[in-house]
Amino acid sequence: MRQKDEYIAEEAFTFPLICLVCMAFIIHWGYTDGWPVGAIIGTSFFGIAVLCYVGKYIRCGRNYLKIYADGIEIKDWNKITTLNWSEIKKCEVYYRSSYASAVFFERDLFIVTKSDNKREQHISVSLSGKYCRHKSVIEAIERFGGNGVFDSQSSHRQNRYLAGVVLAVFIGIIFIFIISIISEA
User: Is the distance from CB of 110 to CB of 124 less than 8 angstroms?
Assistant: First the structure.
């Protein structure tokens, strides 16, 4: 959501709502079929996931990323990190493969902070679970932090690498499909 003096990307409720809908379907399945083992296990699994999210939202609230004139504020669970623009060396927005599967990708904001000693601090903020587009985040960083803060060259290099990996996987799948068709003939 874009406001006058700040840009806020709040956590989305998509995954908890999907869990809630799945749990409702499984409860309906269990109610109509006399509670088979699959319905009991599914209800337990999605029920625990829904309860964890409800507890997290009640106790910690929603996670967010706020970009404004003074800097960037990141809230992840109960931890709030505030970085002033003078502390930020560069920012990148890119896609990376998720830990769950090599097929799915997540968007990240990668922040490198300036440091007095030789070690830099690297902060990675997931943009995938938030209501935002990476283009809007880039525009907000350039608007509030200036053009020198956002490293567009590194971001484009990361995205080209990801596009190459996706293209190689797609060509490999087509190649395997063609070989299977030829071997059957």
Answer: yes
Q: What is the pLDDT of residues 34-76, one digit of tens each?
A: 899 989 999 999 999 999 999 999 999 999 999 999 999 999 9
C-alpha to C-alpha distance for 114 and 72, rounded to whole angstroms? 14
What does pTM read for this prediction? 0.75
Closest C-alpha to 72, from 56, 59, 90, 60: 90
b vs e for 143-167, b when ≥16 Cβ sit within 10 Å of the residue's Cβ? ebbeeebbbeebbeebeeeeeeeee
SS3 7: strand
Residues whose CB falls within 8 Å of the CB of residue 132, separated by 6 or more in sequence, listed in order: 9, 65
Please return the burial class of 130, using the count of CB atoms within 10 Å of its CB with bins 0-12, 13-18 and 19+: buried
